[in-house]
């Protein structure tokens, strides 16, 4: 079939023979006509002749369409933390699949990889987060947590506590309820969301919302909006607060250091559960194993996905504290929840190998070290650029806020697509960065080298210059 030969052709003809080009075109047409893409404008996809075909990866490089080499400063979607093309990961998958391709974790059955991975996660996780439920995506893990939140309050005899508080700019997933938690209105409009039972409070976005306050004063103010919302709803109606320690999807919104201690105190005072969504920040991205380690948070739940397997297999985890497990899992009666592929042996084996690599190669420490290099080089090269309002982040996570006027912090209308134009210009320089709202996001693999960071920074300098020139 054209499909089978296409993957062979794509692999063997990096130089790109006519045959390989023809097969690629067939594939692009098949994709254009039949493949529904995530977060994609499908009419534009039709008009532009179809999607880019990613074919291989090596280290920090993504290779597509035969021989187009792109330095992936986004690690896919912030997940390929150990880098592309790790043979030992492929071997771990092959070995696990040969031993046991599948068995479920329903009704008191496990497999060696799931058992070992659950213990490994529990040992690494902050505080009393000791119980691991496996899912296939961050969305499913969050959705699972939300069901446990409801179960917890029912078991406590407070079934009215069902309301979940989330934040503006949040991203927690694409299922019905997690979409409702997202603080991004365009994701709601087409679907008649959010569902009832969700409220959003201000995000700690000092650069946009801090006004005349210094970051620390603003951090406390933003945290107090949680208290105000609980008072407005009535504490006896509120079940939980969900938040990403750092909001990455919306441009690496860094909470001032005063923010998290205040949030933790409010959750304690009001007796509501705290869910730390560490889907992006988990497993070293910030230079700490978890962002909670940096902020001194011990949440009641933690969501993990992306970096758990470095994206090599779909796997996610809902990590549950002793306090919640005691009320929901240890009171007798079955836990009425689960997915066919929860604790999948191959996915768990790959995740274990991924964690081995992170430990053996000191990749968390490396994320801290290379992160400092990235931030210093970004600040030197573009910190004073007229289009750059702020460079922020932690570890190998950087957000660059673009502005019209640095002094007033005003920005160009979103419809102008400034960030997309800059990201596209960087792509033309061979570097993948991500445009979101008024910001660019950089989130590279932990194995990125200093020379590669130089390439990323140089591409951004060139892209900003080009677009700035066009604006004059
Ligand atoms: N939570 C956060 C913070 C995320 O960034 C994402 C995805 O980007 C999710 C949840 C959803 O994860 P998934 O796409 O695996 O469902």
Explain the overall architecture.
- The protein is an alpha/beta fold and 472 residues long.
- Helix content is 44%, strand content 15%.
- The protein contains 18 helices and 15 strands.
- The chain has a seven-stranded mixed β-sheet with strand order 4-10-9-8-7-5-6, sandwiched between helices. The protein has a four-stranded mixed β-sheet with strand order 1-2-3-13, with helices on both faces.
- β11 and β12 form a beta hairpin.
- α5 packs antiparallel against α15 and α17 crosses α18.
- The site of pyridoxal-5'-phosphate (PLP) has 16 residues, from α7.
- Keywords: Aminotransferase, Pyridoxal phosphate, Transferase.
- It comes from Iodidimonas muriae.
- Its cofactor is pyridoxal 5'-phosphate.
Index terms:
alpha/beta; 7-stranded mixed beta sheet; PyrdxlP-dep_Trfase_major; single chain; binds pyridoxal-5'-phosphate; 472 residues; 44% helix; transaminase activity; globular; PyrdxlP-dep_Trfase_small; 4-stranded mixed beta sheet; 15 strands
